[in-house]
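Reposting from the mailing list since nobody answered there.

I have sequence plus structure tokens for a pair of proteins and want to know whether others read the tokens the same way I do. The first protein:
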Amino acid sequence: MTQYSRMSWQGNRLWTSRGRRLASEGVERALEHTLGEAKKIIPLDEGTLERSGRVDVEGLNGAISFDTVYAVVQHERLDFKHLPGRTAKYLEIPMNSERDVMLRLMAVGLRRWLRG
């Protein structure tokens, strides 16, 4: 059995202010979700690293950041010992494992609007 999907390009609608706003909100939703997942596995001692996590979105560009002097070291050093359930690569892991969820979250508002 062949599986296919149908698509109708409505790109001109996306360039309106509402389309850009909905797309930006979708990016923010997706990154907030991923930040939440990262906080579940981030190395934990006093919670400073976890509390420093934030999402910044400007238009269709967004970023997740952790603002401590040791955030990169904790992320990259695989030889550090962590509490059970906590790990290095605390941002990379959810960025990969939550990819499909992120894409769905980004599409929610736009899909409703484009169908309407």
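The second protein, same order (residues first, tokens after):
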Amino acid sequence: MPAIPPWTLALATALLFAGLDIAAVLTAGVERAPLHNPIGLAALAWVVGPLEWLKAPGEARQLPVFQAYALAKTVVAALAVACAAVACATRPARRRTSLLAVQMACALALDSIPFHLLVAVQLAMLLPLRQALAWLAIQYLLGAGVDLLLVLDLSQRLAQPPRWPLLGYLCAERVVVVGGFALVGRLVLYERRTRQALAAAHAQVLATQSLLADTVRGAERMRIARDLHDMVGHHLTALNLHLDLALRQAGSTAPPALPTARDVSHDLLAQVRSVVTSTREDRAIDLAQALRMLCAGLPGLKVDLRIDAEAARHPAPAAHALFCCIQEAVTNTLRHAQAGCLTIVLEAREGMTVARVADDGRGKPCATEGNGLRGMRERLADLGGALSYRHGGGDGFALEMRLPHAWGGA
């Protein structure tokens, strides 16, 4: 079953909520339109003045007020719909937070619990848990603050004491936003991350199989070379010795075919030795193919893979170390970076094989080195290599792995 992009779900849900909200206003008409909300009060203030309608309540239900209210509500709802779709499709963290802030402002202006619920679900899906909880608390407090202002405004306009039970009901009603955050948002996030993890694991398995198959082929070539050396080579050497002995014993009476047979045997032995030598030396593994298979199956991540021809093939220890390090870097990007683009460069430079992995996610300037980075550093150090990295808040994370030319090249 193909995965549905989150932005399409957000767009469809926002359109549904906006359509129902606007339809309710149009159905209520001029006389029944619910004006006691931020947009309605703004429309009243714009058309008849903030206090004039108290003196002449009938004027507050004039057609211009209703038209201004319906138009403003449509514009704000359309803005919320657009922000909901773009927030789920964009990758940069700052742009996402800006779009979520605009959505939250639209939900407050609309005084709409469904739009608040949509914002809470996106908070759970798009932001790290701690940041999402902070935003949820701000959203709830701002919503409760708007409810308080509306209750106080209503009591002033009606010249009555504030209706505190009404405020309590409105605040309790907003608990559904917290429920949407905890249930729907986190559930959708878990399902999406599970899909991504499964796809990434599948890509890693295929890449590892490719690397293993190349290693097995190299080992099989080595076995064949050893058998040629131990069996065919030894027999040819013995044959050459016997032919030389036969030539010496025959002396001048040796038939012409005997020297020819000796020369052919010597040439054949030289060719066998050449094949064995080239087979032993050709033990490099094609790391480029494994990396292409790894990057081809990464979900939701644009990968820019650049591999120099000189750095494509490596001996088995170096290929295994580099592949494991790059695979660990890719896994960390998928799990933690929330990146949209990943760049992998493998090149030969200054007598070294250099691999660089960089993303455009949310880098942490004070992140501590965990088991993953330590394991990568240890793998490279065992081969005389080194690991370096940089990270900054919002500027992504970059790794650079170096191996000496003795290990890095074929």
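Reply #1 (J.P.):
I read it the same way you do. The radius of gyration is 36 Å.
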